[in-house]
Amino acid sequence: MKTFLSFGAGVQTTAMLIMIAKGELEADAVIFADTGAEHPETYEYIEEYDRPLCERLGIPFITVRMHRIMVNVSTGEHECADSLREAILARKRVPSINTRWCTEYAKITPIRMFIRNMQREGKMEKPALSLIGISIDEKHRALNADGSWRQPRISEYRNVYPLVEKRISRDDCHRIIKDYGWPQPPKSGCYFCPFQSAREWASLFRTHPDLFWDAVALEEQDLNFPEYNLYPKGKRGLRRLASGPGFGYGSLSLFDDYEGQACVEVEASCML
After folding, report:
1. Pick from 38, 269, 51: which is nearest to 159 by CA?
2. Distance CA 64, CA 266 (A)
3. Which domain holds residue 118?
4. Does some domain include residue 241?
5. Are residues 152 and 218 in the same domain?
6. CATH number of the domain that residue 154 is part of
7. What are 64-98's pLDDT values in tens digits?
8. How far apart are CA 193 and CA 64, in angstroms?
9. Within this chain, do residues 155 and 81 fall inside the same structural domain, yes or no?
10. Which residues contact 45 (CB under 8 A, 6 or more apart)?
11. Confidence of residue 99 (pLDDT cuts 50, 70, 90)
12. Of the candidates 134, 159, 189, which is a domain's last residue?
């Protein structure tokens, strides 16, 4: 094995999987780093569309998860966190838009460790090639300040950006999926991701209230709450956001923001 698709389950990587099926891209495996906190619709889409397609193609769809020994700040004891939610509870820290520790714990490290083990067993070349789902309209996310391709600071694999190289945009990805006869995948990401807009929080409140209130509970146990919270743009906690007029049911004019803008403006290493 040499090349794998780093699968985020969003529009770009879903389109790339279809391109693999059509012979327009090549990959020996599809690797999905499961944080344990994706929206239910994402897991359903994977099981209904992505995994069966890989089975028909004879390409392994590999799910990796975090397995991290860490100190529980409440008890001082070492424990193993097998999901991002468990890590949040142990650290009493919710994901941060600044440090991005969640991406390192639940996405980058599990993939790196899997690739490293495969290479130790002689089952994958070193360095491997990771196909990254960044489209041409987000080209800046793939480039360093000097114009070179952004690469991981590890030796196990190197990144390649086929959508940028082929000048395929996000809208093109939507068309690829539609033309293949598939519905559009839901936006991927953890249900407690701090990059969510007010409208996305309202949608979670409306469609999965249990997950919304779990996010509230995680936020309020954070050691830095309320100075830091999961909706930092509004400088208010989720509980207060949910008390706003029309939250989850209508207009969000007092709390609205541009959907997805935060993810576009920063280094989105989640590759979502």
Report:
1. 269
2. 25
3. 3-189
4. yes
5. no
6. 3.40.50.620
7. 999 999 999 999 999 999 999 999 999 999 998 88
8. 19
9. yes
10. 9, 185, 186
11. confident
12. 189
Residues 205 and 106 in one domain: no
**Does residue 51 lie in a domain region?**
yes
In a domain? residue 106:
yes
More confident site: 153 or 62: 62
* Cβ neighbours for 216, distance < 8 A, ≥ 6 positions apart: 237, 238, 239, 242
| HSE-CB of 94 using CA atoms within 13 angstroms | 29
Q: Which residues of 255-270 are buried (b: 16+ CB within 10 A; e: fewer)?
A: bebeebebbeeeebeb
Task: Provide the token pair at 176.
Answer: 């690829």
Phi, psi of 45 (to 5 degrees): -65, -45
Spatial separation of the C-alpha atoms in residues 216 and 212, rounded to whole Å: 6
Single pTM value for the model: 0.89
DSSP string covering 215-266: HHHHHHTSTTTTTS-S-GGGTS-HHHHHTSTTTTTS--TTT---TTHHHHHS
167 with 214, same domain: the answer is: no
